[in-house]
Specification:
- This is MoaD/ThiS family protein.
- Helix content is 29%, strand content 28%.
- By secondary structure, the chain is of the alpha+beta class.
- The longest helix has 10 residues.
- It is globular.
- 27% of the residues are buried.
C-alpha cells in the first residue's frame, strides 16, 4: 500500500468538498474508488471524476486504465476537471 495525497482542482474541489486528502492505495483506481466512498460523496463527485484528467507526480495518466496506474509512496495525484476558457 502506498500513501500519498490527492489534490482536487476547480469543480473537483467543489465536488470533493476539500482541496486535498490522503490516499492509501496501490493503484489510481483504488484511490479514486475510496475517495468516492468517503463522507457519503455521491453522483456529482463521480461525474466530475469521469470527466477529469489525472496527473501522478506530474506525469499525465492519459488513456491508461486507472487499475494499471501504480501509485508511489509519498506521491501526489492531481484531479483536473475540464476548465472553461483558455
Amino acid at each position: 500500500m502506498a500513501k500519498g495525497t490527492i489534490r482536487y482542482w476547480a469543480a473537483a474541489k467543489a465536488a470533493a468538498g476539500t482541496h486535498e486528502e490522503p490516499y492509501d492505495a496501490v493503484t489510481l483506481d483504488e484511490a479514486l474508488a475510496a475517495a468516492a466512498l468517503r463522507d457519503g460523496r455521491g453522483g456529482d463527485f463521480r461525474r466530475v471524476l469521469d470527466r477529469s484528467s489525472f496527473l501522478v507526480d506530474g506525469d499525465p495518466v492519459g488513456g491508461r486504465p486507472h487499475a494499471s496506474v501504480a501509485l508511489p509512496d509519498g506521491g501526489v495525484v492531481e484531479v483536473l476537471p475540464p476548465f472553461a476558457g483558455g
